[in-house]
């Protein structure tokens, strides 16, 4: 099922995009071409393009979390900008680390502008995020910054685990879930609560939004894992089966490996030889599905979507804001199914 | 002249090293081997080594700046740790960007553990720095964090300029100085004042320490530029003439180019062909010196050392602390001359 993008994405973009552009415009000119390209503001030669970038889920969550605390959307905007900048910092670096040459149907920054631009440009986005959030350094902004730094820390730890998993053959499902909670969940969780922190909300609401975002992160990453194998290249911008080709220890594969019959099993043997042929990828895909890897990963996505929605059920969030948080979560999880 | 390392370096290390080790020990296990290696705590296989790391100039400045405000050294420690972590973040990334395979006579992290470890490990050091500083997020720590983020921002912009300069042939001396002020001066300036910020010092003292550190940064970088051409490989850990070999647009070369006789000049022609032979490097070194590039860069180092010392002459810093700031500045600038 393809869901229509929720109206809140456009509503939040109207608040956040100008502040985001302002922040980016102040960046170092030597980095600006690559950064504007990466953010979808411009072509590789600097020509502005009409629209682009991601769906803006994280900024929308940040804005909604301010509104959840009864504040104006604008209160969440510095948080929205900061979280979106941190997200893009991680994309720039991850593409180098993973050697990915394509993202969102476009050549990645390192592949187009060089590794230096991707590394230093990413660094600049991270410090810009904190600059936006800490100026001025009010107590609420300091609290929000501390939360963003901790989330970024966890995201980086998750990426480190993900990287380590590629050369390990004994990754457990629990380890994978913990990695995904860190790599994806930490920043989504921060996005879902940073507006409330900026609005000086009480701990009960902040904690509920933190939990909502954390579960949403697990569900989101489970869907991402499914798309990494069964996603249409049109939708993902990556070749089908690309996670298997890259030996990524994602949930569907781990579920399938867990029910295999040990050392002589066909599935691990497909990965033993280093690079997989197209036939290997097709066979691995078949085996992962036949052994329930797809179904069990879908179940995780569904369960954590439910847990996300439960987390915010009863903490006094205004009805209209609650409805938008509900709709956004469903959209994120059910996006391409 | 080789100066003896000032006692304040050891004194500050005694305060800062345990806090630094504590912070690092909490890092993600998948990054810890590379990070501990980089910081000189351990060999590549994880075996602890007795001593290592840099001279610890930045942490010493941070501690002194707290004492300059009349506070205990301990007040400056979170700032010292944060600044040292940011410095090491930048080293990890710069080595990848510059393709340097050696630092402090040891193989660099990317060359030994891979680019992924250097990028993600560097990212982790940066967020750890802010985590240390923002926990707890008191107003003084928030102010110090905002200053550190701005300094890091400037440092990254400086690195971006430095990177851009390598493919430009029209870099002016002013542009080079501005780049060096950003790349080196911003963090030294922050190190020199962050303790005072943590001690809630008044603006007059903070501004004086900011100026001291900024001038010290220019002087320090000028010396670094001299060492990049004339430094003994034993001292620098890099081959002699390495800045020229890498086409680095550092001050001595720019001064020498500025007095050349235009397009037919011998000096720019040496760089026109891409990679320089050993004979080219020797000839370029000779020309740069003969045209006063060495002398004028030494003059900049001397002048800015003087300006650094002037900046803190009359702002009520306790006599003993003032003497240590004075000695440390002289040591930094006169280190290998």
Describe the protein in words.
The structure is a homodimer of 337-residue chains. In chain A, 72% of the residues lie in helices and 1% in strands. With 337 residues, chain A is an all-alpha fold. Chain A has one domain: Farnesyl Diphosphate Synthase, CATH 1.10.600. The longest helix of chain A is centred in the middle third of the chain and has 28 residues, at 203-230. The radius of gyration of chain A is 20 Å and the shape is globular. In chain A, 54% of the residues are buried. The interface between A and B is large, with 43 and 43 residues.
Topology (elements, then pairings):
The structure is a homodimer of 337-residue chains.
Chain A: H1 7-25, H2 29-38, H3 57-68, H4 73-98, E1 102-103, E2 106-107, H5 109-113, H6 115-134, H7 139-165, H8 173-198, H9 203-230, H10 233-236, H11 242-245, H12 251-258, H13 266-272, H14 278-290, H15 293-311, H16 319-334
Antiparallel strand pairs in A: 1-2
Helix pairs in contact in A: 1-3, 1-4, 2-6, 3-4, 3-8, 3-16, 4-6, 4-7, 4-8, 7-8, 8-9, 9-15, 9-16, 12-14, 12-15, 15-16
């Amino acid at each position: 099922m393809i869901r229509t993008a929720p109206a809140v994405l456009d509503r939040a973009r109207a608040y956040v995009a100008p502040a985001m552009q302002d922040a980016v415009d102040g960046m170092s000119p030597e980095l600006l071409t690559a950064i504007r390209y990466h953010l979808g503001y411009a072509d590789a030669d600097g020509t502005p393009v009409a629209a682009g970038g991601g769906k803006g889920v994280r900024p929308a969550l940040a804005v909604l979390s301010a509104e959840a605390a009864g504040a104006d959307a604008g209160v969440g905007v510095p948080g929205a900008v900061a979280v979106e900048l941190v997200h893009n910092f991680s994309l720039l670096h991850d593409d180098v680390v993973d050697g990915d040459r394509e993202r969102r149907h476009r050549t990645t920054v390192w592949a187009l502008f060089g590794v230096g631009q991707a590394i230093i440009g990413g660094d600049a986005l991270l410090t810009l995020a904190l600059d936006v959030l800490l100026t001025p350094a009010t107590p609420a902004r300091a609290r929000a910054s501390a939360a963003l730094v901790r989330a970024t820390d966890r995201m980086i730890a998750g990426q480190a685990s993900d990287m380590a998993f590629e050369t390990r053959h004994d990754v457990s499902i629990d380890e994978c879930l913990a990695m995904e909670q860190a790599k994806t969940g930490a920043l989504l969780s921060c996005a879902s609560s940073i507006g409330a922190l900026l609005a000086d909300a009480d701990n009960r609401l902040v904690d509920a939004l933190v939990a909502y975002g954390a579960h949403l992160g697990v569900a989101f990453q489970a869907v991402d894992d499914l798309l990494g194998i069964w996603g249409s290249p049109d939708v993902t911008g990556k070749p089908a089966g690309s996670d298997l080709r890259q030996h990524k220890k994602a949930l569907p594969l781990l579920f399938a490996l867990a029910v295999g019959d040990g050392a002589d099993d066909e599935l691990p043997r497909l990965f033993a030889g280093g690079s997989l042929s197209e036939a290997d990828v097709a066979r691995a895909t078949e085996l992962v599905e036949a052994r329930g890897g797809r179904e069990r990963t879908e179940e995780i996505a569904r369960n954590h979507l439910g847990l996300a929605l439960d987390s915010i059920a009863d903490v006094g969030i205004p009805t209209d804001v609650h409805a938008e948080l509900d709709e956004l979560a469903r959209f994120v999880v059910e996006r391409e199914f």
